[in-house]
From TrEMBL:
Membrane spanning stretches: 12-28
A GO CC term attached to the entry: cytoplasm
Family: Belongs to the cytochrome P450 family.
Entry protein name: Cytochrome P450
MF GO annotations: heme binding; iron ion binding; oxidoreductase activity, acting on paired donors, with incorporation or reduction of molecular oxygen, reduced flavin or flavoprotein as one donor, and incorporation of one atom of oxygen; steroid hydroxylase activity
Keyword terms, alphabetized: Heme, Iron, Membrane, Metal-binding, Monooxygenase, Oxidoreductase, Transmembrane, Transmembrane helix
Presence of keyword Signal: no
Family matches, as Pfam families: p450 (PF00067)
InterPro entries in the cross-refs: Cyt_P450, Cyt_P450_CS, Cyt_P450_E_grp-I, Cyt_P450_sf, Cytochrome_P450_fam2
SUPFAM superfamilies, A to Z: Cytochrome P450 (SSF48264)
Length: 388
């Protein structure tokens, strides 16, 4: 039994979360996402929003693309995201990482502080609206699945797969799972894609190596995550981005279930029963004993560690660990691989007016980059053209 499971009620809740996360990861592991649908989403959201040689803030294209992909994974459809849905997701993204929200989430009594509560209220209001809409869509999907129970032609999305496994899953379970995929898959992927563009602008040689590898493996076809072993350097770059960005510097708070004494580097630490514990998974990311020259961007460091297996290497937890690991992490891996690979196939990323974007981070629950602009230029060469 983990020392971070407190009372019986919490243990039951943790078990529920654990089972939910296991199903999410199992589904995503065996999910085959139609290449045609990915092509359509990519061309619509990125290929058609980028103006050649024009400096632009990529946020709109990134958020729209990732949102559409998640919606297709979860509900199997396109163009289902309403304006209010997108506004509420935007509010969640802006407020979930705010220090005020995290303080109140960890210490609920602080919600009575007006200055802190203003941001938290926006977050809660947007979250409730999202849950309401998720509930409506889950109910509609349940009804559709019941009517089409024996229809093998029905596209298998996450909700249908869950109902096929157990038609008695409650709406609460399905809404929670879908919400985890949405918030986890969206916020982490968007943040990682932002940082990926920034670091690749700083390292054009890495861009070139990724592009050559992806084109050799897939040509101009959509990169296939199931064949990721063909692109070891690209995988190493993604791992290095996850390590260096450290998108989730602080883990979800846990509570000690009993008194614990720990000895670390000769020092003794006492953790009393009931204490709130914040795991800092990223502490090893910058440990020179684990990663030499930890503040250098060096994808080659991961080529020396089972690069044919994209599971987390030892001492590397970009999305947390254990029962409360981010449920959207598997989806984030797939999205990051496919979208970044697709961008590399067709574009070179250049700084605006020769000025490199800042590597400074905005403080909060997630390590967000400062606003930036980049220039995407068509890759020169015969046969390599931007998608239309």
């Amino acid at each position: 039994m983990s020392i971070f499971l407190s009372n019986p009620l919490y243990s039951i809740l943790s078990l529920f979360i654990f089972i939910t996360v296991l199903f999410v990861h199992s589904y995503l592991k065996h999910r085959s996402f139609p290449a045609g649908r990915l092509n359509y989403i990519y061309d619509r959201e990125i290929g058609l929003q980028v103006t050649k040689s024009s400096p632009s803030n990529p946020d709109k294209a990134i958020v729209s693309t990732v949102s559409s992909i998640i919606d297709s994974f979860v509900f199997g459809g396109l163009d289902k995201c309403t304006a209010s849905w997108k506004d509420n997701l935007d509010a969640i993204l802006k407020n979930v990482a705010a220090p005020q929200t995290q303080l109140i989430n960890s210490y609920p009594l602080l919600r009575f502080c007006p200055i802190l509560n203003r941001t938290f209220t926006k977050f809660v209001k947007a979250g409730n609206a999202i849950n309401t809409e998720l509930g409506s869509r889950v109910a509609a999907r349940r009804q559709m699945s019941a009517v089409s129970e024996h229809d093998d032609q029905l596209p298998e999305d996450f909700i249908q797969a869950a109902l096929k496994q157990n038609k008695n899953y409650s709406d609460t379970t399905l809404i929670t799972s879908a919400g985890d995929l949405w918030t986890g898959g969206l916020s982490t992927t968007v943040t990682l894609l932002r940082w990926a563009l920034i670091y690749l602008v700083h390292h054009p040689n890495v861009q070139t190596r990724i592009r050559e590898e992806v084109l050799e493996a897939f040509g101009q076809s959509m990169p296939n995550y199931k064949e990721k072993e063909k692109t070891p350097y690209f995988l190493a770059t993604i791992r290095e981005l996850l390590r260096l960005v450290n998108v989730l510097p602080y883990g979800i708070p846990h509570r000690a279930s009993k008194d614990v004494t720990m000895v670390v580097e000769g020092k003794t630490y006492f953790i009393p029963k009931g204490a709130t514990v914040f795991p800092i998974y990223g502490v090893t990311n910058f440990d020179p004993n684990v990663f030499p020259e930890p503040y250098s961007f060096n994808p080659d460091r991961f080529l020396n560690t089972s690069h044919n297996d994209f599971s987390n290497p030892q001492n590397f937890f970009p999305f947390g660990a254990g029962r409360r690991r981010c449920a959207g992490s598997s989806l984030a891996y797939i999205e990051l691989y496919v979208l970044l690979g697709r961008i590399m196939q067709f574009f070179e990323i250049h700084p605006e007016d020769g000025k490199l974007p800042s590597l400074q981070r905005s403080p909060g629950m997630t390590n967000e980059p400062l606003p930036f602009k980049v220039v995407l230029k068509n890759v020169p060469g015969p046969g390599i053209q931007r998608p239309v």
